[in-house]
Amino acid sequence: MDDTERRDQHAAQQRAYLDRHPEQYEKARLRSRAWRASNRERHRASVREWEKAHPRRYDSEQHHRWHLTARGLTQDEYDHLLARQGGVCFFCGKPETANRRASVIRRLSIDHDHETNQVRGLLCLGCNISLGYFERGMKSRLDPSRVELYLGGSWF
Q1: Which helix (H) or strand (E) is 123 found in, with range?
Q2: Helix/strand/coil for 58
Q3: Domains of the chain
Q4: Quick one: average pLDDT of 100-125?
Q5: Pairing status of strand 119-123 against strand 109-112
């Protein structure tokens, strides 16, 4: 049994244990988060290794299709929205530069209203996170007047 198989088997055993003991879930989640924070490079190497060993489980196209379906969009509608924005983020005017795992450039995020699920536009990862901060009343790098225009839907 190689390391990858051993790790997968161990993960399955942990999941089974947590299913039987749900009160332990939060403790395990916090332990796992702390380990990843203190072993960042080791964790990243492990993730890259897992993705190479399981190429079909991590498919960015499949991930994108899931988001389209969840937001009620077709690929043509996404492409139309992307063309309407000039292929760039609404706020910063730049194409997406953030990498997904396995060094694949992300697509622009499909921003939507979390209450109505209505699509508002396409944003880069940084602006999407900043918009979330703005909506929660936290400090954000976005121009408030531009955010109000965006949230009002009058740019559409």
Answers
A1: strand 119-123
A2: coil
A3: 3-53 (no CATH), 60-152 (3.40.1800)
A4: 82
A5: antiparallel
